Amino acid sequence: MPHHFKVEELEFQKRGAPIEVFDLLSSPRLGQLAGCKWLQVDIRRLEPGKFSFPYHAHRASEEFFMILSGQATLRSPEGFRIVTAQEIVIFPAGAEHAHQLYNHGDEDCAYLDVRTTPAIDVVDYPDTGKVNILPQMEVYDQKQGRCEYYSGEQDVARHWPADVLKPEK
User: What is the pLDDT of residues 16-34, one digit of tens each?
Assistant: First the structure.
């Protein structure tokens, strides 16, 4: 039997990121609730001035975003571009598909985040030189060895053009 979810009935919660600009709102893991083994499905809401995740690329997982409402700026190896409601962006595995979203607007940006989940994935973080082994969440820095997920991400704005970022209020 299929599983049905109504977006307006989902309870969104902040992830509790230790760096405020990464503390986005997320739905429950819908794929997991539906009993899926390899499919991860989340609806995420980026508040104005927030980043999705540290800039990253998956070596094995594939991912796509569908912008449901609002808009955000997408950072990729090709540069920066605005994505808006009803756009779909697909990220195959590989360093050339690194990505990060930033909400430059004045309203929340809601997006559907769908990912494949192979048995093991390695995620690279080009800004900090970290790697993350999933699903174990073992994060390593080239210099210090094992580290926390957000290690080195405190100054994420330095990788973005100043004219894209919202001024702090």
Answer: 999 999 999 999 999 999 9
